[in-house]
Amino acid sequence: MMKQYKSMPKQVIAKVISQKEVKRGCFRMKIESPIIARSASPGQFLHILCGDSGYPLLRRPISIHRIGKKDIEILYSVIGKGTKILSGKRSGDTLDIIGPLGNGFKVFKGSRSVKMLVAGGMGVAPLLGLADELSRGAKGKNKFIVVLGARTHNHILCEGDFKRLGGDVHIATEDGSKGRRGSATDLARDIVHSKKYKWRDVCIYTAGPINMVKALARLVEGCSIESQASLEERMACGLGACLGCAIETQSGYKRVCKDGPVFNFCEVVA
Amino acid sequence: MKPKLEVKIGKLKLKNPVTVASGTFGYGSEFDGTADIDKLGGIVTKTITLHARVGNKPPRIIETPSGMINSIGLENPGVEKFIKDKLPFLQKYKIPVIASIAGETIKEYSELAGRLDSVKDIAAIEINISCPNIKTSKLFSQDENSTGEVVRAVRSATKKTVITKLSPNVTDIGGIAKSAESAGSDALSLINTLKAMSVDAKTRESRLGDVTGGLSGPAIKPVALFMIWKVYHRVKIPIIGMGGIMSPSDVVEFMLCGSTAVSVGTANFVHPNAAAEAVKGLSQYLKNEKIKDVNKLIGSLKV
Ligand SMILES: Cc1cc2nc3c(=O)[nH]c(=O)nc-3n(C[C@H](O)[C@H](O)[C@H](O)COP(=O)(O)OP(=O)(O)OC[C@H]3O[C@@H](n4cnc5c(N)ncnc54)[C@H](O)[C@@H]3O)c2cc1C
Ligand SMILES: Cc1cc2nc3c(=O)[nH]c(=O)nc-3n(C[C@H](O)[C@H](O)[C@H](O)COP(=O)(O)O)c2cc1C
Ligand code: FES
């Protein structure tokens, strides 16, 4: 049976509980919202109004990073005007949020596949929430594999969090300052191809821009048909109405906000 | 005393002047739960074509100062699927549904209008002859003759209220408006988006997959107000004004310049309930200003 993730998005004015710069230019924010926390699932996202005076105009989509009982966390990097304003919020400030939006990751009940979470850069954001869920459902050590990729050892995010949840963490850095030199994608391929695992039994969960996901999906061709990726595209409404966030899939254009953001690998590549 | 909010667009009565603009509210269901749809004066659907259209290559949107550019390319399931799959949801709100249509030929416009004429729950037809995101060298709405021809074809295919949606990308919007009126249009709606581009200096590429698109949002409001003001003095038929409406006072400004009703567009993406909030705010404005009937605002700009 497939776990059903259906929930009605709500617009809420939520309080910022805390915000911390975890790495340079990268922030983790805890937001109070029992309504969203109750109905959210890993891989869904929030549509956040960053400015309050019409600048920037549109909301910004940010993945749900962790789901608490009454709160949710996000993890984001400052790349432009919206995320810059967001990073200036302090505990006690309020945020106008619509969420939870989109379809989250599916964890197939009874599936015996080996779960492998692959994240380059900010891709870790939605995957930690998934790791939370996976760790609750499994026993013992090394419940799932995690492959983290970053530019340097200074850019690696959430390593400790994944380990605490029982993840078998592997690291790749572009400059070789930690773990293997290279990308998360290459490292993931080598792990999948190693003798330890039966290739088609490895179920990959990943998140990031479509080109990275496509590259990964090609490298690990033949892995479990359950494999999924959370994709990104610029958004306006976030509700499935404007058709602005379309991406090209095997079955034609799909809306990232409503048909995704999580898509099955076979949708992304032929 | 509660001010009177009802307005008339042709034969069509709206309980208040605030509608939502084509393409910015999907088919309504997308806003279920985040917008008070039943509070709206009317809903204009995403533009529908005879056959399904897949739309343009991504990326399809980009934010620009106080606005956004889109190149959706009229993605829609086609008229039959619209009637079968999308319309039933809209009916439950008991507000007028205005179907927006577009064709590649005049014959397609008249076929679409004929098909929708037989559908009881469509209150009016908006003829979109002004979408900038389809591959034609010239829009129907960029020429007085072709505007007249499309309107005449639709007019003779339906008894429903006909609204013609105009493009701001013309030299004399008044002349085009006049031509639509003479051809039998019951009302006009303006403005559609302004042709626009956004370029990335670093990659030396357009930020849109289709290279060009249409600009909407607060950035185009001053242009919209001017064009409505101009058209208001050229035609007698009512105008549905739009272009960057974000707040109740924007609605008032559009009515002062000559709009009988308005459409909220891009604002729906920012605040899903923006249009319903505008109805509330408009009512409050009228109360504060001791104006008993919203119709008193239309074209009453002091000059
Ligand atoms: C479903 C989804 C989930 C996301 N989750 C996260 C998350 O958890 N953490 C996180 O840090 N980010 C996440 N993002 C990306 C995030 O939405 C963007 O970084 C954010 O919108 C940037 O806003 P800004 O105003 O700061 O930048 P802007 O000023 O809008 O843009 C700065 C520059 O980045 C480019 N850019 C902006 N957004 C995108 C995009 N989506 N794709 C490609 N280029 C872009 C712009 O073209 C511009 O050059 C997610 C995106 C999606 C669609
Ligand atoms: C994403 C998007 C899609 C649109 N699609 C349509 C459409 O299908 N048909 C149409 O007539 N106008 C369409 N428009 C134009 C709007 O209806 C409206 O005329 C324009 O956006 C100006 O209003 P605004 O500034 O309030 O958005 C679209 C606008 C946007 C932003
Ligand atoms: S952002 Fe509007 S449809 Fe996805």
Tally of alpha and pi helices of chain A: 7
| Ligand catalogue | flavin-adenine dinucleotide, flavin mononucleotide, FE2/S2 (inorganic) cluster
Strand order of the largest sheet of chain B: 3-4-7-8-9-10-15-16
Task: Work out the count of structural domains of chain A.
Answer: 2
Q: Spans of chain A of 5+ residues with little confidence (pLDDT < 50)?
A: 1-5
Proportion of strand residues of chain B:
15-25%
Could you tell me the mean pLDDT of chain A? 90
So what's the oligomer here? Answer: heterodimer
Mean pLDDT of chain B comes to 95
Largest sheet of chain B: 8 strands, parallel, barrel
Pair with the most extensive interface? A-B, 31 and 35 residues
List the helices and strands of chain B in order: EEEEEEHEHEHEHEEEEEHEHEHH
- Please state the structural category of chain A: alpha/beta
What low-confidence regions of chain B span 5 or more consecutive residues with pLDDT below 50? none
CATH hierarchy class name of chain B = Alpha Beta
Measure the end-to-end span of chain B: 29 Å
Descriptive notes:
- The complex is a heterodimer of chains A (270) and B (303).
- Chain A is α/β, with parallel strands linked by helices.
- Chain A folds into 2 domains: 92 residues, Beta Barrel (Elongation Factor Tu (Ef-tu), domain 3); 119 residues, Rossmann fold (3-Layer(aba) Sandwich).
- In chain A, 21% of the residues lie in helices and 34% in strands.
- Chain A has a 7-stranded antiparallel β-sheet with strand order 4-3-7-1-2-6-5.
- The model of chain B has no long low-confidence stretch (mean pLDDT 95).
- Chain B starts with 6 loop residues before the first strand and ends in a 15-residue tail after the last helix.
- Chain B has 303 residues and is α/β, with parallel strands linked by helices.
- In chain B, strand 8, helix 3 and strand 9 form a beta-alpha-beta unit.
- Helices cover 29% and strands 19% of the residues of chain B.
- The longest helix of chain B has 15 residues.
- Chain B has one domain: TIM Barrel.
- In chain B, the strands form 4 sheets. Chain B has an 8-stranded parallel β-barrel, surrounded by 6 helices. A 4-stranded antiparallel β-sheet of chain B has the order 5-6-14-11, with no helix packed on it.
- Classes of the chains: A alpha/beta (270), B alpha/beta (303).
- Chains A and B meet through strand 14 of A and strand 5, strand 6 and helix 7 of B.
- Bound molecules: flavin-adenine dinucleotide, flavin mononucleotide and FE2/S2 (inorganic) cluster.
- The site of FE2/S2 (inorganic) cluster has 13 residues of chain A, from loops.
